[in-house]
Amino acid sequence: MRKSILVCLAVLAAWNVYSQDFSNKGKDFWVAYGYHTSMIPANGNSQNMVLYFATDQVTNITITVPGSPYTIQTITTLPGTNVTPSVIVPKTSPDFRLMAEGVSNNGIHIVSDKPMVAYAHIYNGSCSGATILYPTNTLGREYYSVNFKNYSNQDSSNCWLYVMAVDTGTTTIEITPTGPTIGGWVAGTTYTVNLTQGQVYNVVGRMINRPANCNPACTGWDLTGSKVKSINNGTGCKKISVFSGSGRISITCNNNASSSDNYMVQAMPKTAWGKNT
To answer: Full-prediction pTM beyond 0.70?
Structure first.
């Protein structure tokens, strides 16, 4: 299944992010280690997050966490090969996972000296989710979370979204969730948070129903439509990066959940939306 996901992502690499002259090929990217149900202690923290990079020339790549003194890795791609280099993101000592709701310093910054395409993939066995990453120059200031009705065959499969500050200085952000969250946020209420570059605000939807063995399904609040907006704090409206997903989710026609996968995707800014497909 992981191979199938990567093949699909490779096809997407040729797709333009905007109708304007922007591409998903770049030299600067941001991402974080979004929630997967395997992270909770009862499930053994058995998932991994891997970053993949597609290059067509010798490229020096550095992966850091600005809020930490730790450099995840520095790599140089090899010339004349079709091998896609990959990097595993640490999950213990140091631990860059997003599990709790609120602010963390766990934003991951990827910088290269040549244009490349980048992906993020979180998996545990066959339970797998991946996303292409958009270069920083294509990011915007207003987003809506895109999730799905949260049915799963495993408990603690919460729906989530997170927002990251990517510009220097303080970024002021308004978040309006469409459902109640584990941190006590109320649906339809707008909350304001301030982040510095590399900081992440993680929003986690509450679970609704937890039947025994999740039969026919455990359910959680769907955060689709939650609005995330950077606002002017006197120094201008700064760019932000937004991702959405679920710890595990089952997309079916009958509201049952015989199987499920984690879900993660980088959101496109409102300015990238169109009226024609």
So the answer is: yes
